[in-house]
């Protein structure tokens, strides 16, 4: 079976798995999402097996699994409308296929530059932010104590940040620099989640706020790793951060 055929088959099967999750009882929904995530991991490994290197089990394969888990958790929040769930199902399948293509580009581009790499970086960043938004919305929706909010945000975001930063250079290993930078940005997001836990904002607004700061943080670190972090670039991202804070305070409604 050719690689693209594997991507199509895997995307369809995982979409059917997501549909099955919708019919699981509430008591078992987290187990069902966990099972879907595990299936996504191993099926992703099968689909990408041709060029898969040992380090890519940590830098490429987990992304589809995290995306599946994020959408699976969000799927339970949808209204009992077959049309809305069908739309999300279609978006999930297309998104999974796009992630497989992106992961494949990362895998074959190691050690050289190919034309599609810039598109892959853009798609990877988009799905990183989307996965962050859905995960964070779920975390705050659980109404947990502030320290658990911070813990879960950290556990869910560290692999997302690590994979995003690794994709900049596509090295044949995960360097100490990438790990350290991932830890610093994740710590910042944890602190932000802890602070937001004490304010009466809606869960979507808090999730959007954290996603916005993730975008700024990844933008700065991507440019740093590319050795393009000039004063003008840093100034632009700082202005974006200030703008986000001001807009958040002025326009975002309270719970």
Write a concise keyword list for the protein shown above.
255 residues; 77% helix
* DSSP E strands, number: 0
Query: Which structural category fits the helices and strands?
Result: mainly alpha
**General form:** globular
Largest sheet: none
- What fraction strand? under 5%
Helix tally equals 10
| Poorly predicted tracts of residues | none
Helix share bin: over 70%
Radius of gyration, CA atoms, in whole angstroms: 18 Å
| End-to-end distance | 51 Å
Order of helices and strands: HHHHHHHHHH
Total number of domains: 2
Characterization of the model:
With 255 residues, the chain is an all-alpha fold. It folds into 2 domains: 1-108, no CATH class; 113-255, no CATH class. The protein has 10 helices and no strands. The longest helix is centred in the middle third of the chain and has 27 residues, at 82-108. It starts with a helix and ends with a helix.
Fold topology:
Elements: H1 3-21, H2 29-47, H3 56-59, H4 62-75, H5 82-108, H6 117-141, H7 146-169, H8 176-196, H9 203-225, H10 231-251
Helix pairs in contact: 1-2, 1-5, 2-4, 4-5, 4-6, 5-6, 6-7, 6-9, 7-8, 7-9, 8-9, 9-10
């Amino acid at each position: 079976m050719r690689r693209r055929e594997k991507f199509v088959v895997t995307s369809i099967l995982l979409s059917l798995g997501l549909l099955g999750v919708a019919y699981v009882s509430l008591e078992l929904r987290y187990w069902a999402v966990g099972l879907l995530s595990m299936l996504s991991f191993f099926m992703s490994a099968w689909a990408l097996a041709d060029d898969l290197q040992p380090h890519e089990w940590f830098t490429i394969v987990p992304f589809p699994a995290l995306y599946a888990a994020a959408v699976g958790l969000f799927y339970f929040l949808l209204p009992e409308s077959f049309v809305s769930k069908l739309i999300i199902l279609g978006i999930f399948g297309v998104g999974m296929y796009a992630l497989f293509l992106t992961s494949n580009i990362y895998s074959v581009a190691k050690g050289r530059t190919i034309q599609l790499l810039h598109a892959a970086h853009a798609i990877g960043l988009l799905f990183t932010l989307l996965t962050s938004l859905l995960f964070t919305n779920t975390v705050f929706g659980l109404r947990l104590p502030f320290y658990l909010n911070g813990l879960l945000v950290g556990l869910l975001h560290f692999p997302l940040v690590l994979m995003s930063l690794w994709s900049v250079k596509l090295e044949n290993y995960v360097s100490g620099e990438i790990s350290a930078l991932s830890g610093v940005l994740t710590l910042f997001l944890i602190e932000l989640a802890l602070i937001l836990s004490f304010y009466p904002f809606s869960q979507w607004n808090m999730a959007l706020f954290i996603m916005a700061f993730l975008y700024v943080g990844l933008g700065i670190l991507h440019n740093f790793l590319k050795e393009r972090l000039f004063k003008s670039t840093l100034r632009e991202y700082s202005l974006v951060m200030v703008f986000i804070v001001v807009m958040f305070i002025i326009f975002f409604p309270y719970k």
